[in-house]
Amino acid sequence: MAWMYLVLAGLLEIVWAFFMKKSAGFTLLVPSAITIVTMIASFALLSISMKTLPLGTAYTIWTGIGAVGAFAVGVIVLGEAANPMRLLAGALIVAGIVLMKLSSTAA
Q: How does it sit in the membrane (predicted)?
């Protein structure tokens, strides 16, 4: 169950990062509110997952999901550049997430 909470926390990190961008520096009410609510939920789920998972594993996977997801949303939704170096960087982050999961002995 901890892994499910962690993945959901990572997905919510993508949501809050996107809406933070859309909030225009917290000057727009709705995107700002979505940012804050999803940020709190993401941190809460990360905290719950850390009851079982090691700190390093949970935090690395949470930030990795958020980083790769925000990168993908930036490219797909916001039209940001997807040059070979950025794609390689994203692939290396995914590889790190997979290795971290495979090396974990927690539930």
A: Multi-pass membrane protein
Could you report the per-residue pLDDT of 69-97, keeping only the tens digit for each? 999 999 999 999 999 999 999 999 999 88
pTM: predicted TM-score of the whole model, two decimal places: 0.86
Q: Find all residues with CB under 8 Å of 98, minimum gap 6, and list them.
A: none
Exposed / middle / buried, residue 51 (Cβ in 10 Å: 0-12, 13-18, 19+): exposed
**Token digits of residue 9:** 């926390």
Q: Which two tokens stand for residue 66?
A: 């958020």
Write down the domain spans for the chain: 2-103
Q: How far is CA 29 from the centre of its chain?
A: 23
Give the up-direction half-sphere exposure of residue 79: CA atoms within 13 A in the CB hemisphere.
Answer: 0
58 contacts: CB under 8 Å, gap ≥ 6: 2, 6, 46, 49, 50
